[in-house]
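User: I'm preparing a small set of examples for a lab meeting where we compare how different chains pack in three dimensions. I only have the primary sequence for this one, and I'd like the structure in token form so I can line it up with the others. Please keep the answer compact; I'll paste it straight into my notes.
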Amino acid sequence: MKDKINMKTIAGRAGVSVATVSRVINQNGRFSAETEARVRHVMEEMNYHPNTIAKSLREQHSRIIGVIVPDITNAHFAGLVLEIEKILFEHAYSTVICNTNESDALEKKHIDALLSQRVSGIIFISGKRHYSLHDVTVVYVDRRPDNYDTDSDCVVVESDNESGGYLAAECLIRKGCKDITMLYARTMDHNQKMRLTGYQKALAAHDLAVRALEADSVSVEAAAAKIKAYSRAGNRLDGLVCTTDLLAIGAMIGLRELGIGVPEDVKITGYDDSALATLYHPTITSVHQPVRDMARKTVSLLLDHMDGRQKESARYVLPVYLAERETTT
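Assistant: Understood. Below is the structure token output for the 329-residue chain.
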């Protein structure tokens, strides 16, 4: 019968101690890059995979992090998930991605499933509510939970949405626009509210009238329908601030169907600076969210809390900037 391959086997083949193999696998303690490369080469050569399930049962947790996301098809969310997954993998953690489709009931089911797997932590991307999960570390990224202001014992990483809304509106004002409207989605989460606040402040600073349109959802179809109805009603429009790149694309499609040119007749800004902003034509001026920095900060905070290096609640706001492209030329 074939001998069982274990850490002792790997240690003998790699010429190191069993303790060193354990440190490499668990990514703790001291070892050189050369030693790690040698151990991992032997593990791969012998097709050795540590029994993480047994380990999690002994330690009452696993090296698995749950990532809960409201819509994995959203380019911004998908990019954030990818960065988080890559960084966690560098720290020897696996991820379980849970897509909720913006459903509270499905989100709760995902949480129960993750807890049953003894995950070490949960990252909520734009989570709707604050969960007090005493047995697992939780970090919120991109959007603070709805009850954050009244129940703020949580860790949140977000970008400066108010500044983003101001930068987008100020860009259109600088380009000579006078009739500027904001297009947002009916969900009107905290991020969109802060972007609206920034837009309002920019227009107030230049004594311009504030106008806002509500699309039924964050979709191309909803944005196109809303902007067509608004224009057909005879409303004046020469600038449009959209709270996402997807809404900006929908607005451009709707305006094109009416024979209204972008940026000749209406200048448009999006938000997120996702891949869509450079792939669509004309390319979209968009507020850039620092996705990589958000991911790094989120994982760093999660690991610090899990290891007991940080215990206090905190809110981290990362800066944004405007990436100017063809829709505002």
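A couple of notes for your slides: The CA atoms of residues 13 and 42 lie 7 Å apart. The chain is about 45% helix and 20% strand.

User: Perfect, thanks.
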